Every structure is written in C-alpha cells, then in structure tokens.
Amino acid sequence: MILRLPNRNHAFSLVEVVLAVGIFAFVAVALIGLFSFGLKLNRESVDEMEATALAQAMLNARKAAPTNSLPNCALPRLDQAAEILPSSPVYISADGSSQPSATDARFGLVYRIAPRSSPSSVSSVYLCLFWPSAAGANKAQGRCELISTVALP
User: By Cβ atoms counted within 10 A, which residue in 7, 19, 71, 92 is the most buried?
Assistant: First the structure.
C-alpha cells in the first residue's frame, strides 16, 4: 500500500497576483488624492484662522484706544466726523504692520468706519481681510469679515 502525502505546493496564480496589485494601486491612488485634498483644506483653515486672529487683534487694539494714534496699526482713529472708506486696500503683514505694496504683504485689508452717532457715541467698524493680498478683495482666495461697534470716550 502506497501512502500519498498531500500536495503542499500551493501558490498564487499570475492572474491573482495581477488582480491584487491592481486593487492595491487603485486604493493607493485614491488615498493619495485624499491626502492632497486634506493638505489643501488644512492650509485654507490655517489661513482663515490667521486672518481671523489678526482682524480680532486689530479691532481689539482699536477698541482699547479708539481715539489715539497707534504705531503699526492699519486702522485710523475712530473719532473722525466723516465716514472713512479708503479707495484702495491697505496691505498688512502677518503681524499686523502696514506694508507698502501687495508683494510684501500677507493680507489685504478693506475697512469702513462709520462716524459716531451723536447720542450714543458709538462708531461702527467693518473689517475685511483677504488673501492673497495681490488678488484684490473681489478675486481673493479667502476672506475674513468682522463687523463691530466701538464705544468712544
């Protein structure tokens, strides 16, 4: 009587290997696409957070001293008698200081300051930070807008 040992030479066929490599490649391409989308979304989020923090800091500085001239503050004094609406954007760096041109700046700033209303002595401030600064407010990649009122002394 002859005993036969089970055949232990199991292997993958060429079709199975090609199919597995194809599935792996498809999944890898999808994951790389998601990764690049995630990086873009992260960058946009960082830009928006920086702009929001900068706009809030500028507004808080102006609220703390509404009638004083502040060095490196892009916003003018708030005790003006007429509405302030600059004809062109103000260019500012990431730390909030004014820059001479859009090429040196991180953000562009457009603002509108309504004059104080007589009985309440409150001035209305509208800020719009946009980026990149060279794009202009209407064609910007992103923008952050704040509206606030500031009590005047």
Answer: 92
